[in-house]
Each structure stands twice: as C-alpha cells, then as structure tokens.
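Anyone else keep sequences and structure tokens together like this?

Example one:
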Amino acid sequence: MLGFGIEDTRISFLFKKYLNGTCSKNEAQEIVGIFEDSGNDISLMNEARNQWLTINPENKEDLNTIENHFIMDRILDRLHHRIRLNEEESLLKHSMNKKFFTLFSKVAAILILPLLVYSIYVTSQKSKTGTGSNQVEWQTIKTLAGMQNDFLLPDGSHIWLNSGSVFKYPNSFAKNNRQVELLGEAFFDIKVDTSHPFLVKAGKMNIEVKGTRFNVINYPDEAVTELILESGSVRLFSGNFEDRKTIVTINPGERAVLENKKNYLSVCKVDIEKYLAWKEGILIFRDDQMEEVVKKLNRWFNVEIILQSSELKDYVYTATYKDETLYQILGLLKASAPIDYKIFERIKLNDNSYSKRKIVITKRN
C-alpha cells in the first residue's frame, strides 16, 4: 500500500484490462476512483514508468536521467492540457458525460506519459565538433509542436523551451565561456559566473550575459529576433566572441528587436509580463494585432489557423488565457469581434500521419 492508495498490482491489472478493452462497468468506475484519489499518484507514476520500460527495457538508465531533469508532475500537467484540447470536440459530438470525460483525459494522460518521456529522450541528440583533444560533444534538445520543456544545464542554469524549439549546448562548457545555440523560443535563468560569460547564438543575434533572466524568440519563420530582459544586464555583440564588438547593452524591462533582413536593431521599454508568462502556461495579449494572435495560438495548440481576409489582420486583441481550450478561446474571439470560424477535420497523409487541424477565421457580416 502507498499512502491511502490501492495496491500497485491492482492498478497494473486494471490498466492491462483498459488497454485490452475488457474493463467491466464496475472496473471502469474503479478506475475513476483511482484517478480521483491523490494517494495513488506515486503508484500511477510507477505504472507509467513500467509501461515505458516494457517498450524500451534497455533504456532504464536513460529514463532515470530524464526523470531528474524533467519533473514528471509538470509534464503531466501539460499533457492534461493537450488532451483537453484534442478531446473537447469528441466530448461535444458524442455528448459524453463530464465524469467520463475527466476519466478519459486522466487515463489517456497516464498511458501516453511514457511515450511523451520517450519522445523527449529520442529528440535529445548528440553531435561532436572539433578534433582530437579539442573535440566537444554537443547535446540537442527539441520540443514537439504544442509542448514545452524545462531542464538544467551543466552549470546549473535553468532553461524553459517553448513549442517547436531546438536548443544546443555542450556536455561540458569551455574554459573561458558557456556557449549555447537557440532556434525557437526559450527563457533563460542563468547562474552567475563572472569569469565565464554565458553566450547565446540566436540566428543573427549574439548575446552575452554573466547571470541574468531573459527571454529570446528566434523562430525561423519570423522576420525578427527578439530579446526581453527581466533582470540583470545583457550585451549584444557582433563578430566572434574573442574579437567581439559591443552593439548595445540591454537593461531590465527592455525589448530588443532585430530585423533579420535589414540588420536593423531597435530597443524600447515594454510590459515584460506578456512576453514571459508563457513559461507559466499563460497566454497574454495586449493590443496585439490578430495576425500575431493567430501565430501564437498556432504554436501553442499545434493547429493551423488562417485569416481569410487581410482586413482581419488589423484587428487588435487584448486578453489573458490560462486554462482555456482552443475552442473556448475561439468562442471568446467571436464574442468580442465581428468574426466567425470554421473547423476542418484532419486529413490523413500518405505516411498515415494526420495534418494539423485547420481553422479558417472569416469576417462576420
């Protein structure tokens, strides 16, 4: 027995029947009780771990390493959020009662959790640069579309990686600096080390800090690269680190925007909360144009929202979302602006995968 929970063997037995589709009505009700009782949390997590090891028994050591870097509770919370998005339409179509829907979300989360952990494992890739004694082994961490991860670097710095991002870092930093690379979006909480500057290569933006908190946005489909500073100071430089030339020093509360094609840099004061809240699972819009709102929703929910007319791009929107599903947000958009939307079914592709869900927003007459 674990706390007030039931025996692990009983949970395992019920999961196997669930996977085989042989649960009786009473057993289904028992599963509801298992997930509603927080005393079963450890047992449920153990069951998820056992399922992962059943699929990949040779990777037990790797799973332990992942568990140390990716807090399972946070992963589960995010996964619940994704499942609520994916299943809400099914709930509406089939008039499933609320209790069964809650059960389905929780059961699906615990069953998918091992696969999620495995997906983090397989997207953590290694590469090497240099030769001989100067050879450096690099680690690459990728986040899936619609997902977020956080992890620690070898120096103890904490990184939050947003949806569809790629982060590269060496297994051990160089003697004179700590250099990483980013494609996508990440929040950095850098451990102070004045003798070893922390360097971020984000497209055309070269960043140097010694211990600070800041956010960088560098998606390949964006025309600009952005840096938003929460605390400390940041220096942007050109050239290699050894012969670098300082371009500008960024102060707390400032946002630096680099127009990639023009190589034009601008710096201004902003409300930093709207740029940093994503790592807490919050979406904030403050007089944002609808085109920008759609971009963020597409990444957040891994969908393809299309504005049918250019006129819609000029609409501005202000809102804060935390636990709302995409369908709730679309409903709120419709209530606050003269728009309508249509949701299309996913299309099965040649490789048996499915396209992103497509949503077309139109102007309401």
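And example two:
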Amino acid sequence: MAIKKAFANSFSLVKSEVADFYRSQKLYPVIITLIIAAIMPFFVSSYVISEVLTPMIIFAIYASSWNLLASSGQGSLGHAAFLGIGGFTSALLTIKLGLPSIASLFLGSLISAAIGVLIGLACVRLKAWFLAMVTFGFSVIIVTIFSEFDEFTGAIMGFRTPLIVERGIPFYYTALVFSAISIFIIYLIMKSKLGLAFRAIHQNELEAKMIGINTAKYRLIAFVISTFFAGLAGGLYAQSIQYIQNFIFAPYYSFLPLMMSVIGGLGTIEGPIVGSVIIRVIDSYLPSLDSALDGLLHPLFPSVSHVGPPLRMLGLGVFFIVIVIFAPKGVSPLIKKAYNYLRSSPKEKKHDER
C-alpha cells in the first residue's frame, strides 16, 4: 500500500512538472533546439554527423550526469571510470553473451550504477573535493583492472564495438532520442522534491540536516543516478566511434564533463548542453589549423610541427580560464539574456539600454 501511494505521489509530481514545463516559456527554446538538431544532418557532411554532432549529443548526457552530481554538493574527477565501465560492459555483453545491443546498453548503464552504489556507500560522507579525489583514484584503479584482465576485456589493444543501428544519420537520430529523454529525466529530477533536497545539501549541508534531510541518503541517490547516465553515455560513445580501448578512462574524459558544465553554466539544465556544443566545436575544428600554422611557424621554428593537438588543448584551457574569470555563471545565462532581449518589445529594449 505504501509503495502504491509513493508511486502515485511520484506520478502526480512528474505530471505536474511536465504540465508546468509545457506552460512555461522554456518550451519554445527546447522546440527550436530540437528542430535545429533534427534538420542539421541534411546540411552537413557525413564526417560532421559522425565525428562532431553525434559525440556532441552524447557528451551532453555525460555532462548533464556530472552536473546533477554537482547539484548535490558533490564533485567527481574520475567520472571517466563510469563512462568506460558503461562502454566496455555494454560492448562485451553483446560480444561475449550475444545480447542485443540495446539490452546491453541498458545493462551496461545499470552495472555502472551498481558500481556507483559501492563507491557511493564508501565515500558518500566525504566532502565534495575529498570525494573528487577518491573518484579520481578509482579511475586509475579501474583502468589497471581492465588492463590486467586484457584477455577478457581487450582493453589494451581495443576492439570494434557492435552498433544498435547503422552509423551515420540513423545512429545520430538514435543518440538524439536517448539524449533528449535522458536530459528531460534529469530535468524532472532536478525540479522534483529529490532535486530540492540536492540543492539544500549543496547550499548548506548543516541546515539541510537540521530540517530532517538525510544527507548521506540523498548524496548516494545523486551519485547513483549520475553514474547510471555516465554509463549510458559511455555505451553510446563507444558505439558512435565504433571502437573502445582503455583510453576512455583517461583524465581528459574525467575533466571533460566538469569543463562542459562550468563553461555552459553549472547547476542549469541547459548549461551542459551548451558546454558540450562549445567544447566539441573547439575540439573538432582547432586542429584543422595545423597545416596553416605549420607554414607560419616552420620558418621561425624548424623543429616545431603538428601543432594541432597541442593547440586544441591550449584552446580549451584558455577558453575555460576566460569563462571562469569573466563569466563565472557560464555562457547559458548570456544566451538567455540575448534571447530575452530579442523577444522584448522596443520600449523594453530602450529601458534595458538605459
């Protein structure tokens, strides 16, 4: 009876949130974004679809999972561990056991979440950056484990991953559906009583305890949900590049969701999406300047060559520093201001300019 009542309350709460979202002005930007995402493949090359847009959509899930964790006052510097667990387990379940790719994708996410439960139980009472250091250590441990059991995991040399659907446009739309559903679920969580508890813990853990919030319980819930979606992103990412190796556990992939969330706007639902777009564009197109810069730098520095990869990391680092210093709330609040300004009447524009 209690379970039935809890389910009814949860359903009514979700229904209320969906209705509020439908009535709010937030619906229009979402519709515009989805329309742009839906028609984008018709205007770009197959390379851009597979190598830029599809990973961009998948990393939006990954960054949103980290952002949800951060909303509960926790930090992770080892989220790549759960990205990799989701990627490896979803691929291995299909290859070793012959499970359908879609079933393996969800099972890989659940396994990632199950390991998240174990890590969370051990570390849930730690303060934000102590937890971050523990998760970073765990990512080092997990890559060692996968490498040591290479005969089973194939982590050192890597292997081709099975696909849900054909790579290219079909997989792009599949990733888009997964991303839209995942981010909407995260939105509902952040707007629910659960999300309210997360924010209370984030703002003041002591006061949250005083009003009766079980901080350890809610921190664990946030950690498990976050690791589930990180594992889902890992499974999709492994399929998007049709290959997986232990590089997926690299520190770069642990810092990626942090950078995306901060650049886009920490604590907002749209921030990780905006951050994913910005970082993926920088990551994809800065190396294309390699040949041009080689021509400029070679006469001055004959030993310097192939500046693309270092330039990419330099560009990401510089952009991250600029955002932290000059726009600490991220890019999404600036986009909101621009959007509201464009929607406002001429009188309101004159008032804002004053």
